[in-house]
Amino acid sequence: MVDTRNRISPARANRTSSPREQARNRFIIVIGASAGGIEPLKKIVSDLPAELPAAVFIVLHVGQISYLPAILDRVATLKTSVAENGAFFRTGNIYVAPPGFHLLLHGDHMMLRRGPRENLARPAIDPLFRSAALSYGARVIGVLLSGALSDGTAGLRAVKAVGGIAAVQHPKDAVVPSMVESALQYVEIDHCVPAAKLGGLLAKLAAEPAGETLPAPPIVRLEAAIAAQEHSTMKEADRLGELSVFTCPECNGPLWELKDGDMLRYRCHTGHAFTAEAVLEAQAIEADEILWSLLRSHQQRAEFARRMAERERTRHRSQLARELGQRAEEYDADAALVERILESRRVRVTGNGTVDQESNGKKREG
Q: How high is the pLDDT of residue 235?
């Protein structure tokens, strides 16, 4: 945890209050970010006032180690710390999800769970947004920033479904605009502004009274329970969609196809969740892993055949040596074909131009 207690003045400490004392305003701010999200996060938290009457919760797709709390604490006027399982939260504070755990909100405390990955990530944005929507309804402000793929869209839909506010970083202001573009396509967004304006906007929205909380859709409740590990599998009685012909890229189990408004999403029976874009990305990763394995296999077979051919030559078995040499050439040709396929996959043309996509066979977190 980032220890900032020695730098907090008594006046600043007294300004924080428990969630139960903030029943009327929008006192829950949840923020999701991925690739390109650190700079906008720094800008936002630096612009939040010390007297902010809300608690801020942040999920950034990260690897095994995250320095985000320390980075934000240097620029924020609010106390910034790593979220702790079972800890009560207070307004006037910023809490960051640790690597490897979904951050969830329940009542007036936080929960950390190693539930199924969503959109190839843990922590993922959707579980935080859903849990906030279920616990606090219209008192939630959901914010999506720069990032790849579409994590956060389903969660932002949940926030809107219960009467909360949805805001996104303007796609032209985002380094990687995919996440906010997905949200703009599938969610009725209330505010779309550059990161430089989000801090002030959030402070203004947090000071306003919240509207009426609407009933949460059943799909939100079930998926929140899965993330919290209160619901281990999606059983026949819990069907929220149709069983598809596709398999889960994470565990190879069958995928349920869920229609969330106009948005198509997938979940397997163990709980792994994907948007359609995330399924395509996971399939691309799997295909790359198969191709690299195939390339290595052909190269090794070619090298082994050449060594065997050389061995047979030293034994004056010229016919067998020629046969092994021909086989080595065939394996080399197969390897060259796989190499050309891999080369064609390394460059992908996107809406922003040509992106060098060197594959290393590892799954991306965002």
A: 57
pLDDT of residue 161: 97
DSSP codes, 67-122: -HHHHHHHH-SSEEEE--TT-B--TTEEEEPPTTSEEEEETTEEEEE----BTTBS
Cβ 259 vs Cβ 241: under 8 Å: yes
Could you give the 3-state DSSP secondary structure of residue 266? strand
What does DSSP assign to residue 243? E
pLDDT for residue 328 is more than 80: yes
Spatial separation of the C-alpha atoms in residues 87 and 111, rounded to whole Å: 8
Helices (H), the chain: 10-15, 38-47, 68-75, 125-136, 153-161, 178-186, 195-206, 218-227, 276-314, 318-345
The CA distance from 199 to 70, in Å, is: 19
At residue 305, the 3 state secondary structure works out as: helix
Average confidence (pLDDT) over 81-110 = 96
pLDDT at 186 over 70: yes
Tell me what the mean pLDDT of segment 340-366 comes to.
51
Average pLDDT for 90-95: 96
Active-site residues: which are they? 34, 61, 151
By the 10 Å C-beta count (0-12 exposed, 13-18 middle, 19+ buried), 86 is classed as exposed
